[in-house]
């Protein structure tokens, strides 16, 4: 399980930073892999409002780090926006990232594609401000709600702390850091009991990617799913992306990953499925190991990719049934 913390304050070691660290500590205590992105230090251009993404499904601006953010957002099981209140909203750096999620919004609502994790991904907001304003968090909470809708996450609410001015003031608050830690534990805890499943193939570009997406989409509440390959390709096969899009499932922004990227390191896997690589897959101990003899669809026409996709979906559904 992967938790992404987006730290929106330009002041490192400030209140936002400390609050997010406490939340992520709680998540880690539940066995989650966590990553903090220091948003202001990333190159993320503001949205130009050109509507390119509404036609093409990705942003015309390709030279900044939003592509990396989309990859991380899509990988996350839980996303945490953490921001100081600047003029009753999030920091400008955070708002730039939020506006750029319009490409994900377009994929969801214009192209009608479903992110495989949409049914169980969670989103949460942490916010701090200096004053006692009654509506201090209202605007930012609304922004978070619509951001999470765009990125395919269920908004789980927020923790907001008033009268936090000087850097580090939050550490002197009687409950703030403990509250954030507890929230991190609680939200992660809801998903941490899932069975851990891993699909393996050589390049992690077609078969294991499709299998991962189908198991996340059809059974993600019960399975914590990853995929990997021992020689990861440079990109997910475009024909696999196309074949999955025909089924309404979006593989955009996913990347082939090597064995070293498997999250949850020491924890045992419940299920490993070796897809077409019984002889060559890296040995991975698990409660149950299956071999699916499926020919490699790489370099084959789209029609063959479709047949492979349908066969994989059938097998994934059987997997879910047999695990119930
Ligand atoms: C540009 C700017 C605008 C701010 N606007 C507000 C505001 O509207 N309301 C408020 O209560 N605090 C406001 N603050 C105060 C910060 O929210 C507060 O100091 C917060 O603790 C900073 O978090 P950090 O330590 O993570 O940077 C503002 C601060 C700055 C620099």
Oligomer: single chain
Bound molecules: flavin mononucleotide
Shape, per Cα inertia axes: globular
**Fraction in beta strands:** 15-25%
- Give the biggest sheet: 5 strands, parallel
Helical amount among residues, as a percent range? 25-40%
Report Rg. Answer: 20 Å
Model regions low in confidence, pLDDT < 50 over at least 5 residues? none
Structural class by SSE content: alpha/beta
Number of helices: 10
Would you count the extended β strands for me?
A: 9
What distance lies between the first and last C-alpha atoms, to the nearest angstrom?
21 Å
Order of helices and strands: EHEHHEHHEHEHEHEHEEH
Mean pLDDT: 95
Name the strands of the widest sheet in spatial order.
2-1-3-4-5
Describe this structure in words.
By secondary structure, the chain is an alpha/beta fold. It contains 10 helices and 9 strands. It has helices at 15-29, 52-56, 66-75, 92-100, 102-109, 138-151, 176-192, 207-219, 238-246, 302-323, and strands at residues 2-7, 33-38, 78-84, 122-128, 154-161, 195-201, 223-229, 269-275, 286-292. α1 (15-29) runs parallel beside α7, α8 (207-219) crosses α10 (302-323) and α9 crosses α10. The radius of gyration is 20 Å and the shape is globular. The structure holds flavin mononucleotide. Flavin mononucleotide binds next to α1.
């Amino acid at each position: 399980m992967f938790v992404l913390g987006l730290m929106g304050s330009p002041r490192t070691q400030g209140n936002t930073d400390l609050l997010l660290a406490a939340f992520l500590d709680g998540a880690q205590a539940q066995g989650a892999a966590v990553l903090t992105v220091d948003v202001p230090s990333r190159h993320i251009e503001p949205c130009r409002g050109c509507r390119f993404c509404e036609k093409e499904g990705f942003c015309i601006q390709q030279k900044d780090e939003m592509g990396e953010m989309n990859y991380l957002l899509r990988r996350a099981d839980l996303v945490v926006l953490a921001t100081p209140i600047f003029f009753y909203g999030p920091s400008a750096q955070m708002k730039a990232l939020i506006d750029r999620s319009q490409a994900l919004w377009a994929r969801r609502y214009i192209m009608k594609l479903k992110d495989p994790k949409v049914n169980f991904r969670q989103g949460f907001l942490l916010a701090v401000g200096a004053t006692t304003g009654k509506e201090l968090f209202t605007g930012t909470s609304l922004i978070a709600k619509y951001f999470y809708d765009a990125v395919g996450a269920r908004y789980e609410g927020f923790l907001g702390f008033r009268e936090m001015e000087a850097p580090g003031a939050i550490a002197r608050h009687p409950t703030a850091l403990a509250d954030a830690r507890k929230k991190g534990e609680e939200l992660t805890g809801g998903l941490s009991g899932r069975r851990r499943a891993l699909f393996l193939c050589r390049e992690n570009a077609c078969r294991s990617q499709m299998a991962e997406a189908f198991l996340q989409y059809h059974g993600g509440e019960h399975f914590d799913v990853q995929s990997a390959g021992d020689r990861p390709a440079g990109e997910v096969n475009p024909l696999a992306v196309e074949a999955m899009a025909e089924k309404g499932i979006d593989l955009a922004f996913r990347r082939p990953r090597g064995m070293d990227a498997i999250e949850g390191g020491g924890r045992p896997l419940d299920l490993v499925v070796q897809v077409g690589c019984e002889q060559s897959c890296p040995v991975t101990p698990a409660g149950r190991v299956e071999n699916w003899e499926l020919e490699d669809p790489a370099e084959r026409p789209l029609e063959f990719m479709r047949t492979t996709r349908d066969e994989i979906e059938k097998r994934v559904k059987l997997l879910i049934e047999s695990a119930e």
